[in-house]
């Protein structure tokens, strides 16, 4: 446990020393909320959105953005770099299992995601009066499922790419379509029906819908939850199968 | 006391046989060299000993245990090729973190002083020079106070000065009682450091001896070059059984032969009252022994 804590703290330090990654993970989603919230019409209730405001939708989208940054952009690059540089290989010669390092990294990613999410929710609540999830249990469940789904994909990418750079590129290529379906550019509520149906089956689209459900007071819908569990199972399985230590 | 025993080790990657049949033992307190050209199976052999790869055949015992036994990680320090650290980790953090992995870690501050890293504690890994990275890597291999240290190609990529400094360091480590397995393809390094050597070629041990024994055991050919103070007939030299060939390079004579060649040549010269100026003797080196054993140069 002492070693695990030390590894996790070390990973956190290393993460914070990478200014670009840590900025995009920790602050960018909140900045997005601030920018959109500063547009007066986005703070007006809209009949198209069933009386909700655009900023209400974007808080859950910003939470998904946080998870996408952590799991799809940062995680594959970091993990593939560790393998490429032989960090895992070196660790395998010590009494500490490389699995412990992976665990520490997941813990670090989890901490970063929770901090960034808390910041998004706090700014949304304080600055723009966005209600905190009235179904808190549902929100936690949706958050965990979305995190697990996105991380499974990120770990799969980390397992199959040859280098850290390739991990970064693949992560970026995946990031845009996945975030599109999560509503970053057009919230789900205003997407055409066809796109909504597609979004329901994408990991971040399903995640955003589940988080949105919880924000408005209901438990995540069964379809989104099933889709997320499916992504965890399939990508998690292939990530574990194809992972190489060196 | 035997600390490592390798018997009929075999390891293949698919159809490629990396190690065909390797056997040797390493005794406590010695520096044991594994010498061979690139691709000979040296690294695979030490990876099997370190427990990073499972052997396909044969047996390995390290301190009486199977290399897969994780308790060995506390007793065996390993410095492998292609094993790095995160770029932004500082030297101090790396040492502090890795020392927390071991039951009885060495004092890393003392270790950094011995390794000349004392000034670099706050430097991040990416900013270290090749030699400094290598020394840090050695420090991490020694940080658990191991009984055995396995060092793979530890001076590859270092400049000659850094290489010599590293050799001094390794001798210091051995003096502190650690058994060292040193993988290398540098003859000079093997000759200088190793008590015994296994020469590995194409996955097999082709010789196992002390460096001096390897050199002495070969059909040694010597070369003597000198400038005679007066003309001398080649036939006088050729008449001696030790002499095989006589060549002339301008005013210089080169005599090639075996046995006590120097004595043969000097006695011919003395009888003819000739003095040899600029006398040079080229004796066989480990390099030559290696070429004779493997049929190729280590640089190939």
From TrEMBL, chain A:
TM annotation in the entry: 20-39, 59-80, 101-124, 136-161, 168-186, 222-240
Keyword tags: Antibiotic resistance, Cell membrane, Membrane, Transmembrane, Transmembrane helix, Transport
Subcellular location: Cell membrane; Membrane
Keyword Transport found: yes
Membrane topology recorded in Swiss-Prot or TrEMBL: Multi-pass membrane protein
PROSITE patterns: ABC_TM2
Protein name: Transport permease protein
Protein source organism: Paractinoplanes aksuensis
TrEMBL record, chain B:
Matches recorded under InterPro entries: AAA+_ATPase (IPR003593), ABC_transporter-like_ATP-bd (IPR003439), ABC_transporter-like_CS (IPR017871), ABC_transporter_ATP-binding (IPR050763), P-loop_NTPase (IPR027417)
Source organism of the structure: Paractinoplanes aksuensis
Gene3D superfamilies: P-loop containing nucleotide triphosphate hydrolases (3.40.50.300)
GO molecular function, one term: ATP binding
Name assigned to this protein: ABC transporter ATP-binding protein
Pfam family, one: ABC_tran
Entry membrane topology: Peripheral membrane protein
SMART domains: AAA
Signal peptide: none
Domain ABC transporter: 4-227
Origin superkingdom: Bacteria
Record PANTHER family: ABC TRANSPORTER ATP-BINDING PROTEIN
Main location: membrane
